[in-house]
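Inverse folding, one chain.
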């Protein structure tokens, strides 16, 4: 029942305990819903579902979008919800209809008074609206009368979801037991003492931090009678090989640990049940297209009509502008919208993975999947993101995120396919609770991929079905529109930095971002770095094509009232949507010369004035014409000119203009837009705004934060940020 204990010289015990007294009772059912964007919430919900049976519970698992399979209005069982957050604080796309339904203002305050629930929110504290997807649902359920039987958990992907997820799941079983015990007690008391007040029978929610001890007391761990002697002998052999292995390195690494971890007993996760059966069938050589990539949104294949390098060759980052020809499609957009680019994995990484899996000679074989007849995975289903009848190479290239950081569940699964004793032990450490710090340091923070792990642990030989079960869907990459359709009809512009980073997991390798590296290669044929313009228009090179899809949730738009003043904050490539804003405003002012248009402020920043000042000429043009009324630019790496200390960052420039910023936001109903880096810039700008409001309005910091929160609620403080 509890996670199995693994000692440095002990047997691996996958014990299956029974909750005391539960074997004599009927399984206790609870409803388990998940709202997922990239599969994280689903994986956690499935883990809860798998563990429920061993704890004497039956989980009725559904995606929150499957409203035809559950009914909260009549639900009598306790509810458990796992909710991720997408964008800058939105519930995932799968929860949009659910959230819209419960936000109905016509619903009475006791609509869910019968409901008892526990909620686990997933988020990233680098974003302002941390875990906001879960918080929105949590708040609304309570407003409609639902009550917690278990306190809400907020897991932070910035430091590692498992730090909250694992103890929250551990505590869930005792909370459910307490709920069912209390409910049964209520029924008995109600039968015997009809005069007892309802208030005296109310149950307080259980706090996750108090539950681990209760859970350990309640649960009885038993040895698994099905464990084979051969498994014990195999593990003993592993332990002997560990004792005779050469001394560990003085410092820990991905493949080596040091005391106390190397000598510790380990709590490792239960082995995820395997559920896929894979057959590789020789292909007839049919042509495969990106159109086979699964998407809930329509996909448009569009040609690249222009590519421009916006930075000099000696800039720290290379920034490209790409123009897409959307004139022959139904794709439409507004300035400030974002869209998805559907991209493949690196061909070299796919070939290296095939070689490591010893499947190179079968890469063109057709992948046929079905569910294992004897699987123990509850509700097992074929992965929707793996299309039928396509080659292994196509699936690894277009469908699976092979660069994804492996989750602990995958590390746990790899353990059983690793023959070398020390390697097996190290994988156990990395997926254990005791090895959480090492997992974060050597896997998560280093952005290690599955291929990195397989190269680091050569005795690990996983079957293909295991990887298809665990690798997540290759996600499309979002980009902000950097143009206006009024200014560029039939065209769509976007800009990006070519992401480069040094990977040192197994050897030093310079890697590029999955999408930006691919895009750079795609436009290389039409990009002429010497003139920094493309030759796709009127040139001999054929225009390359890419696939795009619209983003379903777009909110980053100009105010409906053109007289409202706006402040735009966009350092680096964060300037992209604001170029669209300015182009749009210029055309509107041409069409309505007598119209009243509000002031437009832009705070832009980059490293060097002469290397990466993006759209310099365009911004000067807008400023000269009065479209852009205030242009405030800073350069963080240029040497100071004169005695005055330079303004290095956008938040410093905002602070210099505190009075004007406060007046626009507090007295003129202005809007402020922030686009760019979430980790540093967006937080610093937010803190600066709190400071400005506090000082200029003469209020305490807490009151200033409330004012800023009100601006967000009124959609007058909008963010389009990324980490």
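Residues assigned per position:
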């Amino acid at each position: 029942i509890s996670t199995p204990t693994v000692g440095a010289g002990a047997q691996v015990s996958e014990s299956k305990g029974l909750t005391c007294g539960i074997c004599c009772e009927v399984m206790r059912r609870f409803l388990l819903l998940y709202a997922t964007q990239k599969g994280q919430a689903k994986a956690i919900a499935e883990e809860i579902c798998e563990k429920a049976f061993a704890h004497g519970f039956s989980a009725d698992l559904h995606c929150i979008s499957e409203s035809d399979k559950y009914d909260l209005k009549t639900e009598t069982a306790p509810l458990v919800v796992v909710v991720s957050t997408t964008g800058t604080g939105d519930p995932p796309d799968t929860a949009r209809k659910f959230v819209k339904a419960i936000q109905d203002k016509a619903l009475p305050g006791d609509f869910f008074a019968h409901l008892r629930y526990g909620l686990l929110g997933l988020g990233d504290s680098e974003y302002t609206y941390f875990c906001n997807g879960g918080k929105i649902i949590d708040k609304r359920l309570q407003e409609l009368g639902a009550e917690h039987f278990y306190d809400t958990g907020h897991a932070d992907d910035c430091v590692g979801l498992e730090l909250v997820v694992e103890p929250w799941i551990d505590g869930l079983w005792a909370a459910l037991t307490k709920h069912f015990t209390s409910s049964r007690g209520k029924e008995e008391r109600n039968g015997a003492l009809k005069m007892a007040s309802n208030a005296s029978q109310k149950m307080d929610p259980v706090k996750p931090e108090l539950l681990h001890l209760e859970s350990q007391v309640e649960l009885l761990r038993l040895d698994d009678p099905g464990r084979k002697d051969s498994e014990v002998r195999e593990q003993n052999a592993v332990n002997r090989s560990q004792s005779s292995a050469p001394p560990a390195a003085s410092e820990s690494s991905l493949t080596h640990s040091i005391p106390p971890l190397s000598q510790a007993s380990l709590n490792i996760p239960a082995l995820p049940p395997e559920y896929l059966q894979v057959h590789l069938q020789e292909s007839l050589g049919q042509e495969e297209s990106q159109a086979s990539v699964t998407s809930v949104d329509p996909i448009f294949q569009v040609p690249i009509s222009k590519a421009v390098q916006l930075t000099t060759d000696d800039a720290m980052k290379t920034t490209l502008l790409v123009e897409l020809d959307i004139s022959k499609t139904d794709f439409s957009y507004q300035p400030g919208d974002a869209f998805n680019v559907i991209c493949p994995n690196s061909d070299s990484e796919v070939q290296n993975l095939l070689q490591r899996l010893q499947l190179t000679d079968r890469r063109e074989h057709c992948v046929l999947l079905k569910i294992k007849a004897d699987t123990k995975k509850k509700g097992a289903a074929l992965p929707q993101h793996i299309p039928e009848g396509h080659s292994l190479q196509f699936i690894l290239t277009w469908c699976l995120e092979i660069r994804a950081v492996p989750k602990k569940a995958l590390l746990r699964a790899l353990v059983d396919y690793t023959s070398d004793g020390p390697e097996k032990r190290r994988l156990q450490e990395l997926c254990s609770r005791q090895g959480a710090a090492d997992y974060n340091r050597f896997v998560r923070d280093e952005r290690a991929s599955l291929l990195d792990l397989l190269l680091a642990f050569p005795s690990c030989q996983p079957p293909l079905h295991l990887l298809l079960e665990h690798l997540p869907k290759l996600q499309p990459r979002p980009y902000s529109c950097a143009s206006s359709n009024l200014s560029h009809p039939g065209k769509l512009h976007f800009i990006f930095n070519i992401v480069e980073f040094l990977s040192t997991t197994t050897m030093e390798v310079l890697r590029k971002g999955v999408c930006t590296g691919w895009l750079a290669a795609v436009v290389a044929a039409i990009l002429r770095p010497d003139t920094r313009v493309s030759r796709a228009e009127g040139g001999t090179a054929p225009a390359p094509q890419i696939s795009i899809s619209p983003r379903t949730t777009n909110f980053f738009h100009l105010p409906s009232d053109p007289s409202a003043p706006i402040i735009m904050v966009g350092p680096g490539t964060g300037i992209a949507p604001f170029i669209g804003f300015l182009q749009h405003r210029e055309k509107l002012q041409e069409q309505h010369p007598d119209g009243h248009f509000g002031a437009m402020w832009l705070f832009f920043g980059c490293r060097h004035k002469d290397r990466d000042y993006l759209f310099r000429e365009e911004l000067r043009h807008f400023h000269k014409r009065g479209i852009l009324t205030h242009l405030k630019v800073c350069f963080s790496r240029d040497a100071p000119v004169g005695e005055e200390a330079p303004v290095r960052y956008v938040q410093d420039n905002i602070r210099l203009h505190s009075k004007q910023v406060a007046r626009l936001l507090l007295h003129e109903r202005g809007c402020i837009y922030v686009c760019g880096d979430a980790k540093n810039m967006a937080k610093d700008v937010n803190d600066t705004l709190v400071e400005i409001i506090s000082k200029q309005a003469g209020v305490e910091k807490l009151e200033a934060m409330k004012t800023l929160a009100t601006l967000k609620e009124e959609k007058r403080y909008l963010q389009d940020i990324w980490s």
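Residues 318 and 497 are 6 Å apart (CA to CA). The chain has 20 helices and 27 strands.
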